[in-house]
């Protein structure tokens, strides 16, 4: 399966976040991570990515980051899938070092949030992207727009960045309203903007291109079907699937955050295990891990209320190159809209 070069025109579809399995001493379990990447072969997703909140980039030292990037690229490419590597860090120097490592591993795209400890001013944003684009060379850049960076890049500044750096091709923007998405696309026509799953119908009607998806860890096929209906303009057919997702978030995922105190990375592991993955529940400390009870709670809810959200039960092929493997508002996609 030939991979398609990522451009503002081809960057679209469903991209699941890869979860890093940790050993009991918090080291990367490489074999389980290889299996995690391979599990998305043949599911219909457009590609996979790592280095975001789900992948716990903030808890990785350089050596761990480099191994994750190398394995993700090797296994995704063997499955015919493109891969984006998130290279977010607290300084331009560290970001550029990670970009160089990701490019050496063969990444198809670099995903970047702004350095997030101190809020950047506009001139600092411009300098940051100039350094990142220089390090990445011809490898495309994708902005991860998040309130965890303490600021958003407004459409006029985004337009200036895109005019300066032709390799900046898209963005993950789960917190924007439909009107805000319109303003982004007015400022940067043709830019590839991704939203979340909960409002995919509205975002794609307004010009969005797909979703970076955590729910794909539970059932990639369900999210792919939702996307494909939207991409075909069949929004009324897509609406019941999105409504089901909204109920799932409201009754299952949001309470795990608001009542149980779980963060995104822990909740995404619950979904992945419920979907048949083998990434484990262990999060890097000091962050709280979920429990098996959370997994059973999610599965039980789906059995009672939304069996379509559970993946079909069939044997998983462990062949390395098999193509038939089954498988925010605010700071967190699990926070209720503000």
Describe the structure.
The structure is a single chain. The chain has helices at residues 30-38, 62-78, 92-105, 122-136, 155-164, 178-187, 200-205, 216-231, 235-258, 264-274, 292-305; strands spanning 13-16, 48-50, 83-86, 109-112, 141-145, 168-173, 192-195, 210-213. β5, α5 (155-164) and β6 (168-173) form a beta-alpha-beta unit. It has an eight-stranded parallel beta sheet. It is globular, with a radius of gyration of 18 Å. It is 43% helix and 10% strand. The protein has a single domain (13-309), classed as TIM Barrel. It is of the alpha/beta class. α5 (155-164) runs parallel beside α6 (178-187) and α9 (235-258) runs antiparallel to α11 (292-305). It starts with 12 loop residues before the first strand and ends in a 33-residue tail after the last helix.
